[in-house]
Amino acid sequence: MSGIRMRAVTFDVWATLLDLRAFYGLAAAELSSITGLPREYCSDWMSRSHAMVKEALRRGEVDEGDVIGSSTRLAIGLTDPPFTHNELYSAFARAVNAVSGDELLLEGVREVLDALRERGLKLATVGNVIFWPGYLNRILLDRAGLSVYFSAQVYADEVRCLKPNPRIFRIALESLGEDPSGSAHVGDSPGEDFAGSLAAGMASILIRPDGDSITVDRRLRFAIVREIRDVIRVIDEL
């Protein structure tokens, strides 16, 4: 045991709580409907552009003061697609409207959130955005029945700060009235989630579905797990 009582846990949203591939699939279908382009083209464009923007973020080329505009201009500038910014934004808005319930909810998420809430832990989200604003994440989490678990939701476009900048994690913790020493972050990105939360002074739990074991380092206060259900197993060891 680390000797530190955990009081708060923050979560990444996409690929941690909600299924990113499924949402991009919905958005690709809507973009195809709007533009008349083949759905396969739209799906491939979104996948490639997402990867491009993530790489640009790692290089510090995304403007934290204009995350969505900067990301969209970068992706469209690099790929020169036959559609406009407005058509792309409309596709994501329609995709949100197409979600009626918890179809984007990843397996095990509700079970983990229930368990942590029963222990009295405060919960929040800390999320980057690329092509759609944080308030759409709020809508999707609400439709999935998850918004009731979170006392705070913090998104990059709203606070003008991107993970892995430690400041975005601290903003979330301030919203909860907690400090990093008694808090942990859960996410799937080694750079944005894992490195960022550790730099903020938090414990960190990295979800790696391709891993073959669970790793816990009590001294450095991190764990690498295979699925979100493992969070319940390791949280008290950090």
Terminal CA distance reads: 7 Å
Number of strands: 7
Number of domains: 2
Which CATH architecture of the largest domain is right?
A: 3-Layer(aba) Sandwich
SSE order? EHHHHHEHEHHEHEEEH
Mean pLDDT: 96
Q: Detail the poorly predicted runs.
A: none
**Share in β-strands:** 5-15%
Largest sheet strand order: 3-2-1-4-5-7-6
- Look up the CATH topology of the largest domain: Rossmann fold
* Helical residue percent band: 40-55%
CATH class of the largest domain: Alpha Beta
| Net shape | globular
The radius of gyration over CA amounts to 18 Å
Class by helix and strand content?
alpha/beta
Largest sheet: 7 strands, mixed
Number of helices in the DSSP assignment: 10
Give the CATH H-level superfamily of the largest domain.
Answer: HAD superfamily/HAD-like
Notes on the structure:
- The protein has 238 residues and is α/β, with parallel strands linked by helices.
- It has 2 domains: 8-18 and 105-235, HAD superfamily/HAD-like (Rossmann fold, 3-Layer(aba) Sandwich), CATH 3.40.50; 20-101, DNA polymerase, domain 1 (Orthogonal Bundle).
- It is built from 10 helices and 7 strands.
- The protein has a 7-stranded mixed β-sheet with strand order 3-2-1-4-5-7-6, sandwiched between helices.
- The radius of gyration is 18 Å and the shape is globular.
Sum up the structure in keywords.
238 residues, alpha/beta, Rossmann fold, DNA polymerase, domain 1, 2 domains, seven-stranded mixed sheet, 47% helix
Offer a quick outline of the entry.
The chain has 238 residues and is α/β, with parallel strands linked by helices.
